[in-house]
Amino acid sequence: MNYFISGLCVCSLALSAGAFIQANAAQPSAPAAAVIAGQPVDLTYAAEKALPAVVHIKYVQNSKTRTVEVDSNPFGDFFDPFGFFGNPGQGQGGRRQQQVQTPKKEAAGSGVIISADGYIVTNNHVVEGADELTVTLNDNREFSANIIGTDKNTDLALIKINGKDLPTLTIGDSDNLRVGEWVLAVGNPFSLNSTVTAGIVSAKARSLGANGVESFIQTDAAINAGNSGGALVNTKGELVGINAMLYSQTGSYSGYGFAIPTTIMNKVVADIKKYGQVQRAMLGIAGMDAHKWIDAQKAQDKEVDLGVNEGVYVDKVDPDGAGSDAGLESGDVITAVDGKKVTKMAELQEFMATKHPGDKISITYVHKKKSHTTTITLKNEQGNTKVVKQADLDILGANFREITDEKKQQYNISYGLEVIKVGKGALANAGISKGFIIQRVNNETVKTIEDLQKCVKDASTSKDPVLYIQGIFPSGKKGYAAVELTE
User: Fold this and answer.
1) Contact present, 346 and 340 (Cβ < 8 Å)
2) In terms of DSSP H, where are the helices of 107-169?
3) Rounded to 5 degrees, what angle do the CA atoms 165, 170, 176 make?
4) CA–CA separation, 394 vs 252, rounded Å?
5) What value does the mean pLDDT take over residues 252-277?
6) What is the per-residue pLDDT across 216-248, written as a single tens digit (0 to 9) for each?
């Protein structure tokens, strides 16, 4: 169970990478922010520092040939993949395979160079699914980029180009930002390279219900499609956020832009570099802003008295989670963590996003109108404090191949992966032997080795690291197996 749940869903538009918009955007000392009363703030210093380190990212997803199944008889009633009705793999009119070509996709976004040897931070949605990434610097140099790691929950990604002595942007502390402070949004909106817009910090710790983990900096600096992954910069020329989203009914900027704070970014980047993926600490609760819960109860004409009006209302507690171990119960209100006041869920999310499984934190909460403080040892999603690593196919201890036409005819099926060799590993432990044909894993259709690889990776980092496999034994009998991925 996640340690959070959004209190209210807010429709928002994430910035796509350029062409398509998705529903989901020895240093000289810096001058003082505003020294002369009545004069505009001078943002030229910040712009000069930021522009060389903000890059244009071109995304390409190549055209691919896919095999799809269609009815031989367009009036066939249904498709029965496992033959529960006596006709495996066929509808009333039978099934046939057809080759289709997916279109090539090109798009664009932005990124920020954070190290002189070529590490670049951007949004996950800028690079997700890319076959090719081309990075263009402010001085028009071009590099091919590799994806080092991504984190969909925070919509962040780390990529790398091979370069030396590249311009970088100093990373500032987003916690020090104040509402009303001037900031710049730097990026490549609509592929208009090296664009700078100015505004103020409109709000902090904003939650939109778009990502799994979010505590956005809201700004009225103009952010548009293509700005995704670009820099939000303070007047000192320091990176304080990664531009990620806009709120709009049209897909274009209408006054509300959102950036991921560097407090979250720093943890994600460090974990990807060290572990290959984010090590996410879980509190083991689901809840919402206390004031939203109170308002919802009042709307139903219910009397409410929690003893406090601000904080995070605990709606559910995972019985195996860290919160349960510390005594949290449904109806409690979390008011502080490590002595820092918490008034809403987004603030708690931002705090948790900086922690690792095994970390101990102090938590203050109100239970039946009385305040308590206790120490909690945080856990990972699997309920322990170990480092979570994505498993590879090697953990299965077997070799696979896509089924041959002969096997398709023999078993009257149209897809599957055949186990052609079994050694020591998870498959052997589960009783699956050579000749077994895998067709579905964790309710996902498996046609290729890449499909199986994705299932293994997803399951290995989930709360339930098990593959639930459906397939066919060499005898033709359908089989089911649970394959544990823990080593």
Assistant:
1) no
2) 124-127
3) 170
4) 46
5) 90
6) 999 999 888 888 999 999 999 999 999 998 776
pLDDT in tens, 299-343: 999 988 999 999 999 999 999 899 999 899 999 999 999 999 999
Say which of 6, 16, 228, 460 is annotated catalytic: 228
CA distance 431 to 480: 10
* Residues whose CB falls within 8 Å of the CB of residue 204, separated by 6 or more in sequence, listed in order: 177, 179, 215, 217, 218, 261
What does the block give as tokens for 154?
A: 């925070």
Does the annotation count 125 as an active-site position? yes
**Sequence-ordered list of residues with C-beta below 8 angstroms from that of 401, at least 6 positions apart, any chain:** 417, 418, 420, 449
**Paired strand residues for 313:** 288, 333
Q: Strand 437-441 vs strand 105-113: parallel, antiparallel, or unpaired?
A: unpaired
Largest CA distance in the chain: 86
Is 175 part of the annotated catalytic residue set? no
- Other beta carbons less than 10 A from residue 450's beta carbon: 9
pLDDT at residue 19, rounded to an integer: 33
- The total number of residues shown for the chain amounts to 487
Which residues, including other chains, have CB under 8 Å from residue 48's CB and lie 6 or more apart? 237
| CB environment 121-133: b (16+ within 10 A), e (fewer) | bbbbbbbbebeeb
User: What is the spatial distance between Cα 414 and Cα 446, in angstroms, rounded to a whole number?
Assistant: 11
Give me the residues paired with residue 246 across strands: 13, 257
What backbone torsions phi and psi does residue 142 show, to the nearest 5 degrees? Answer: -115, 140
Catalytic residue from among 125, 151, 215, 451: 125
Helices (H), 203-341: 262-275, 290-299, 322-325
Q: Are strands 182-187 and 156-160 parallel, antiparallel or unpaired?
A: unpaired
Secondary structure (3-state) at 227: coil
Distance between CA atoms of residues 296 and 352, nearest Å: 26
Does residue 448 come out as left (phi exceeding 0), alpha (psi in the -120 to 50 range) or beta?
beta
Structure pTM?
Answer: 0.77
162, 197 Cβ separation under 8 angstroms: no
207 is catalytic: no
Question: Which residues fall within 8 angstroms of residue 299, CB to CB, at 6 or more apart?
Answer: none
Dist CA 293 CA 177 (whole Å): 28
Residues 6+ apart with CB under 8 A from 99: 65, 66, 67
- β-pair partners for 260: 242
Q: Residue with structure tokens 């099934």?
A: 95
Question: Which is catalytic among the residues 6, 151, 155, 332?
Answer: 155
Helix (H) or strand (E) holding 447: none
Q: How many degrees, rounded to 5, is the angle at CA 321 between CA 320 and CA 326?
A: 110
Using the structure block, give the residue that is written with the tokens 């199986």.
452
Q: Which of 244, 181, 252, 255 is nearest to 215 (CA)?
A: 244
